[in-house]
Amino acid sequence: MKILTFTSLFPNTTQPELGVFICQRAEHLARLPGTVVRVIAPVPYFPKWLTAKRWGTYSRVQQEETVGNLPTLHPRYAFLPGISMPLHGFLMFLGALNAGRRLHRQFVFDLIDAHYVYPDGFAAILLGKVLRIPVVVSARGTDINVFPSFRLIRPLIRWTLQRANGLIAVSSALKHRMVRLGAPADRIRVIPNGVDVARFEPLDRCEARRSLGIPIMGALIISVGSLVRAKRHEVLIEAVAQLATRIPDLKAYIIGEGSLRPELEALRRKTHTEERVFLVGQKSNTELYRWFSAADVSCLLSSREGWPNVVMESLACGTPVIATRVGGIPEIIVSSELGILVAEDVPSITNAIASALSQKWDREALARYVRSRTWKVVATEIHEYLSSLTKWSSD
Q1: Cα(163)–Cα(127) distance, rounded to whole angstroms?
Q2: C-alpha closest to that of 286 among 82, 91, 68
Q3: Per DSSP, which regions of the chain are E strands?
Q4: For the segment 233-243, what is each residue's pLDDT rounded down to a tens digit?
Q5: Fold that domain 2-194+374-394 belongs to in CATH
Q6: If one looks up domain 205-371 in CATH, what number appears?
Q7: The whole model's pTM is what?
């Protein structure tokens, strides 16, 4: 099978952590016998002579590179931040059209494997119509949980869901939302993400803390996620402040970066948790296993999720998880032996942290639970689904 993976969420020379989970899925697909995968990962055009911290990085992305074991093209497309969102999918299609035609002449792809419903999936379906090959679109989370709330984007998402030859949802919760948006239920396959068991494995807690230069003694929480509103890190800070007298040695490390850093820093000062809560910034995916292994418990207190990889990665390192009951999280934390599901209020989270820190967790059992869900297993399930679609389209 020859597969064209199409997504803007893919690692590149300047953003090596972007879409790591999509890269892992595509890489393991490419390792299956008889499977060829090539990647088109469009990036916005940005002139090199302009300076902008966020968008300027795109001007340094190479036009062509190999990411992992995957030959990858980065065609440019026109994009005006905050203005062209309703045209985003069409502009992405136009920018990637020549690259798609050129690759298809070389490989004659069986289908397009697109990630993120809008704008990527929308653009991929247009490309599929030009190349006359089926398109499968994977929904990830924000594309279904948030974007449909935009009046001009919602019809484009519905159009994409209804015209894709196949749809993949990373959780059952996401599938239900897709159906409510008009996606045919019988066209959706639920295939959750996997975990890199070679990268995420338990490390001795003291050794992990020593390697990170953090206190070896004392209760420790980590929370991994961008510093954005949806991750609700402020609730964790409030909960740690509430626990100051009950657990005097408690510390929390928040791993991630984002626009809410100034606000979270101010909240640390307001709650007098500067010596308890630490915003340690972005860390490479390859480093996270040390942080998970160092922690007594990890927290994910999001207001929305698709299938959060950090929950799987924490469990793979033997660390229990406190998380909100949103998205696919209850589909991962299916037992009280794996973690604690909480409501989205500070008292519930405070009590859950205290309870988790007082329990004795079977770290080996936690790791075993998720280690069967490898990316190789996911790739096999994806390949089976894609094969059924190409067979159907050729009959």
Answers
A1: 12
A2: 68
A3: 2-6, 36-40, 43-44, 64-67, 70-73, 76-77, 111-115, 135-139, 166-169, 188-190, 220-224, 251-255, 277-281, 297-300, 321-324, 339-342
A4: 999 999 999 99
A5: Rossmann fold (3.40.50)
A6: 3.40.50.2000
A7: 0.92
